[in-house]
Amino acid sequence: MKTGLMTTSATARISRRDVLRAGAAMGLTLPLGLQPAMAQAGDTLRVGFISPITGPLAGFGKTDGYVLEQARAALASGLAIGGKTYAVEILDRDTQSNPSIAGQLAKDLIDNEAVDLMLAISTPETINPVSDACEAAGVPCLSTVMPWEAWYFGRGAEPGKLSPFKWSFHFGFGVDEFYRAYVSQWGLIETNKKVGVMYPNDADGNAIRAVLAPKLAEAGYTIVDPGPYETGTADYSAQIALFRQEGVEIFNSFPIPPDFAAFWRQAAQQGLHKQIKIVQVAKTGLFPSDIEALGELGVNIASAAYWHRDFPYSSPLTGLDGKGLAAGYEAASGQQWTQQLGATMSLLDAGFEALKASADPKSKEAVATAIAGLQTVTMIGKVDFTAGPVANVSPGPIIGAQWVKAAEGAGFPLDYVVTENATDPAVPVAAKLQPYNA
Amino acid sequence: MTASAPDMRVDRSTKATRIGLWAMLAVALLLAVAPWYAGAGVINRLTALCVYVLLAAMWNALAGYGGLVSIGQQMFFGLGAYATIRLSEAGVDPFVAVALAGLAVALLSWPVSLVMLRLRGGEFAIGMWVLASVSHLLVNLDPLIQGETGRSLVALNAYDTETRRLMVFWMALLAMLLVLGLLAALLRSRLGLAIQAIRDNEEAAGSLGVDAFRTKQVIFVLSAFGIGLAGAIWLASATSFQPKTYFSVQWTAYMIFMVLVGGIGRFEGAILGACLFFLIETWFAATGVWYLIGLGATAMVFSLYLPKGAWGAIGLRLLPFGYSVTQGNGDRT
After folding, report:
1. Which residues have CB under 8 Å from B283's CB, separation 6+?
2. Which residues in A lie closer than 8 A to residue B149 (C-beta atoms)?
3. How far is the C-alpha of A355 from the C-alpha of A83, rounded, in Å?
4. Which among A223, B37, B54, B141 would be 20 to 30 A from A252, CA to CA?
5. Where does CATH 3.40.50.2300 sit in chain A?
6. pLDDT tens, B5-25?
7. What digits encode the pLDDT tens for the residues B201-214?
8. CATH architecture label of A176-309+398-418
């Protein structure tokens, strides 16, 4: 508390007025069920973790429970920093996929739980409000899994100017990684280089349209763009007709899963799917359930992964490697591994590496400074905030991959295989890209 | 005031309303000095409570007094937030922008009312929803907002954390008191009588010389002003503007819930409804889907069995609106 306005000085003698104040505070807060943050013991680190567990974005948060379990197990005996061992408490919260709730949860964790570090993961709907709340309250915040451009510019930063953010940091893929992955992936199959694109009028779609499309055009691709569409559109006939007329052979989209399902079914009814050699989707097609929901139409859809179990890195926090994490999840849940496992693990990795690197993990300034200078290797690979394209950002890889029919007896109907590795050559390529309409 | 019979009195204020008024003032005062005795978390929650009271009172004014059931009030909420962003980007201090945004929304609602108030009942309700969706899409087209990307009120970063929290809280409290005061003054004026006459029977009111259109317009613009201000304050407390969140029909659903549960057409009812909603949210919001199911079920139970809401069931008159007839022996009729 900086001003004397909020609390009385601890050194002052307790007067009748102080007792009255305390009584009034109790009278007001008790019926609300809200107690002001208790003074935290100096040897417990509290870390907030905000992700979408229910609602339309639930696919992202589905595996978080398992990853948090692993992290808590690894931290059970505390975290040693500078010769002192701190107990660690991770407070996880569900945004219900609602940005408004995400912001309120962040405030609640800051004001009532006195978190020392905030972690937020998956989509602008989760990360932007949490980052803003942390920026407002002066709490260090680390996030991943959304294009960094939508995080940085979408929150009011201007290109070419100093970063307006002091407390919020983001790592992971950006538009440039998509560009390199796509050019590498699309070169694997002979096409007429005509790309039909469906970019929605939202944070991701607009960032992609503004930056990616022109670069792809420069690389020799003809972009056929019917213009931004609003999420939740029910009829895509006009776009499908345009793509058929132009004879596009590559299709690229950044839709939410229900929109892609609606679009691709209509495209199949109108015969568009027969002419498409590469279906390259992002934001949807990340998880097996998105693709399985499409039935036969889902086989051979290409997507790009921010993590894959074949990544050659291991988690400094838990010591698990990619295959171990994926296999552990499959054994514990009976469900197929997803790329979110590694991303969530990497966020926890980077967060705790930053706490370890800080001079004093209980000082918010010290933790923010530690994140700004963080150079480490996590589950997704290198995280380096000293060499980002802009301050507060560390770019990460995005790897081309494809959903193919799994081998007999694999246990799951589809397999997700790496087909290119332009943004991180350390990741092994497992298979050749198959044409969608073959 | 006037005695119609030796043993009957008609009063604006009774003992209960005098006590009620003083209690209201005491609560307002207690809230105003909250930063001296409450922690940051409580202040943030109280800011939300002020916004809820504002929303409930405004929807109640429209539906409970004016008989205008709208399911598109989120339009004004979203536009209030949007106007704040636009003004702040134009160089206006963000806190000044919040206040100006309320006025801007009120100004815009005037031409809107010229069209919308020609619609009746269900047509008006649906028409407002359509308009809310249209304004959402128009805001999405703004290159500054970039569709659902949205924009944050970064200008607020110039203020330190404590100042921000306190300024936003006091603005919310002030806005709530101001708008409640405006509504109270309106309801106690000639116009207030006309508003309720129109709600009960528009034709009959017209035949008595009430200008129905003008009267409805006043309440419509006041409601837009209050809700626009609420949206601007919500943005100042949340920082991030994502159009989908602010133009969500959920806001109107909350308003309807608060008014239905609290007591439609009663000044105290809307305030009680907002407090109830606030408590339910504080205690149960973490239960996710069940919280929403619970809200829906509560609203249904109230509309079936307590159509006058919680305040209607209590039946007290704590604030001096309307008149009460007292018989000599003290029985109210």
Report:
1. A33
2. 124, 150, 154, 202-203, 206-207
3. 13
4. B141
5. 2-174+311-395, 176-309+398-418
6. 557 777 777 888 888 889 889
7. 888 888 888 888 99
8. 3-Layer(aba) Sandwich (3.40)
